[in-house]
Give the backbone structure.
Amino acid sequence: MEDGSSKEITKLHELTYELKVGDAMSRKVITVSPETTMNEFGEMMRANRISGTPVVRDGKMVGIVSIEDLIKALAAGESQATVGEKMHPRTVTLFADEPLVHAVAKFSELQFGRFPVIDRQGSLVGIITQGDIVRAMLRRLEVDYSTEEIHRYRASHIFEDIVADEAALVFGYQVEARNFARAGQASSGLKRTLSRLGIHPQIIRRVAVATYEAEINIVVYTDGGDIVAEVRPDRIKIETVDKGPGIPDIEQAMQPGFSTAPDWVRELGFGAGMGLPNIKACADKMDIKSTVGVGTHLTIKIYLNKSWATAPQ
C-alpha cells in the first residue's frame, strides 16, 4: 500500500501518543459525597470557583454533579435535595494509564470541559482539562530538549563513522499480549533511539505514531509479538510479527472505525478501530500479510528522503 499524501505530524500530536493521561491530570480534586445537599454543593462551587465535581463514596466515583444540576434543583425548590438524587450516575471517565491521545479525542468529540480520571480499580485519582493537556506538553517539550541534546550529539554521526558498502542498525522489542500497563513502551523506546541518532524530528514523529498503533494492535488483538526496526541511511523499516487470530478481511480492517475489539477492551480505552488507518497515514509504504489462525506480518517503510519513496524494493 502506498500513499503519496502529506505525512506531516506535529510534535504535539506525537506527544499525545507518548504521554499518559496520568502525566497531565491534576491530582487535587474537589469532590462531594452523595449525602451533600444541593445548597451545600452550591456554596462549595462558589468557594472554589468550580462548575462541577465528581461525586465520591468510599473512594469510588459514583457520579458527577454540575452547575446545571444545581440550577434545576433551585428552580424546582429542591435546595435540600441530596447530590445523590440529582447527580448523573453514568459519567464518561478516562483511565490514568490511557495514552493522552484518547483524552484529546474525547474532548474533541464530546466538548466537555473536564473528565474525571480513575485507576483500573475504579478509584478516582484525578481530573483533567484541556489546559492540563497543554501544560503537560509544554513541560515535556522542555524536558525532552534539555535531556536529549547530549545523547543526540554522541550518536548523530554514527553512519558517517561506519566504513561499509551498506550499513544498518536493527532494534528489537518484545510486546506482551494484554499488558496495557506496558503498552507504548516499544514505540517510546524507538523514538528516543532515533532522536539520539539525529533522525529528523518529522520522521521520528511518523515512526512513533505508526509504531505505537502497531504495538497497541499486538497488545489488544494477539497473543503477543515482536517489533523490529531497521534503520538505514535512506529509510526506516518497521516490521511487526504477531501470534494471533490473523485478519480475515484486510480491506475491511483498513476502514476507519472498524474494530473487532471486545467490550472489555473498549472499556479500557483501546480498540477504537483507527490503528491501521493511522499507520497507513504515517507510512510511505505499508504491507500486511495475515493468515487466519496463525498471525499477521506488518511492514512499514518511512523514507528519510522523499525521493526514495518510489524506489524499487
